[in-house]
Structures are given as C-alpha cells and as structure tokens.
C-alpha cells in the first residue's frame, strides 16, 4: 500500500511539473488581449509628423502579423536611448478604434533580438521582421 501511495505521489508531482512547463512554454505577449481576432486594419502614420501614409486591410497579412507579434520574443529597451521609428502602426478594429500601436522601423534593429516593431507599453523590441507593405 505504501508503495502505491509513493507511486501516486510521484505521478502527481510529474504531471504538475509537466503542466507548469507546458503552460510556460506557450507564452504569449498578450499585446492585443481579447481583441487579437478583431483587428480589421493597420493604419500606418509617419512617426514624427503623424501624417497618414496608408491603410493595410489584407486580413491574411494582418492575422499572420498579429500572431507573430503575440508570440514574439522580446528584447528590453527600457534603459536605451533609441532613435524614433519611421512609422507608427495602429492596429484598428472595424469601428476604427485603436486596439494596439507599435513603432515600426524600416530597417531591422538588433537589440538583444532582431526586429522592426517596438512596443512602448512593454518597453521592448519584438523579434518580428515582417515588413509592412508601405511603398
């Protein structure tokens, strides 16, 4: 009987640790919260002047980019003096309300990770190199 309890205890500990590791490995930046599926367009604006550049409405491109951003590795920029990005990418819902915004660099930056998208909210560069179809 004692051997059976030891077996059950080891089994419980194993499954608990396995579950914890599995959940930790499925990390998400949760940048879009519950609205990740509600992004209808990406409005691109000049970072310095706020001048409108273009709107991206290709749903497959948007869905793919949102997924990349949600699962991207990040590199902290909290204590860095960064140059301003060239553009601001505003992720909008169907009512044109801003869900999330990122600074977008035309050239990839290498700051612990290589990427083009900067989150002021996270104070981090996201390891996503997907180019926005701007020009």
How are the strands of the biggest sheet laid out side by side? 2-1-4-5-6-7-3
| Radius of gyration from the alpha-carbon trace, in angstroms | 20 Å
Strand content: 25-35%
The helix-and-strand class reads: alpha+beta
Largest sheet descriptor = 7 strands, antiparallel
> How much is the average pLDDT?
84
What's the oligomerization state?
Answer: single chain
Low-confidence parts: 17-26
Please trace the helix and strand order, writing H or E for each element: HEEHEEEEE
Give the N-to-C terminal Cα separation.
73 Å
Helix content: 25-40%
Key traits:
single chain; 135 residues; alpha+beta; seven-stranded antiparallel beta sheet; 2 helices; signal
How does this structure look, described?
This protein has 135 residues and is α+β, with helices and mostly antiparallel strands. The protein has one domain (29-126). It contains two helices and seven strands; from the N terminus they run αββαβββββ. It has helices at residues 2-25, 59-71; strands at residues 41-46, 52-56, 74-76, 87-92, 98-110, 114-119, 124-126. The chain has a seven-stranded antiparallel sheet, with helices on one face. A hairpin with a 3-residue loop joins strand 5 (98-110) and strand 6. The longest helix is centred in the N-terminal third of the chain and has 24 residues, at 2-25. The chain starts with a helix and ends in a 9-residue tail after the last strand.
In short:
The chain contains two helices and seven strands. By secondary structure, the protein is of the alpha+beta class. The protein is globular.
């Amino acid at each position: 009987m004692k051997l059976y309890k030891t077996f059950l205890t080891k089994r419980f500990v194993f499954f608990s640790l396995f579950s914890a590791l599995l959940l930790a490995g499925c990390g998400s930046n949760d940048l879009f919260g519950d609205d990740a599926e509600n992004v209808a367009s990406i409005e691109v604006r000049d970072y310095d002047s706020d001048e409108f550049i273009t709107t991206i409405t290709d749903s497959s491109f948007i869905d793919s980019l949102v997924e990349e951003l949600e699962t991207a590795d990040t590199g902290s920029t909290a204590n860095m003096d960064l140059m301003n990005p060239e553009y601001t990418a505003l992720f909008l819902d169907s009512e044109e309300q801003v869900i999330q915004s990122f600074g977008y660099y035309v050239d990839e930056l290498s700051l612990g990770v290589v990427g083009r998208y900067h989150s002021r909210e996270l104070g981090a560069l996201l390891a996503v190199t997907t180019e926005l179809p701007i020009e």
